[in-house]
Write a structure and sequence with these properties.
108 residues; alpha+beta; SH3 type barrels; five-stranded antiparallel sheet; 3 helices; 5 strands; elongated
Amino acid sequence: MKKLPTIFRNEITKKSDNNMTYSKSDDLDRNNDIDVLKKINDIFTSSNYVYKADVEIKLKDKIINKTVIGRNKTHLITSTNELITISDIIDIKKNWVLNTLFLYSIVK
């Protein structure tokens, strides 16, 4: 069998640590946006939602309790006609305490 020519290999002299400095903050923000949109869709598609939902909204700078009556592509609409930008929302959850008290007052 014929001997093939050798292949050039350059020696690695530097230490590679580029994986240590790599960050995926954009991916985390995107996943958070998807989670918030999923939570908003879950609130509006739940069987308990008729025309309003009492929610606790965690924004970038504060936490607020609002009654949400609708939404569009970029905003949530509250019962007092306030617009809350969806991109400013960090977390949203249904406020079960207010709903339970409301139902209790009706039954009573």
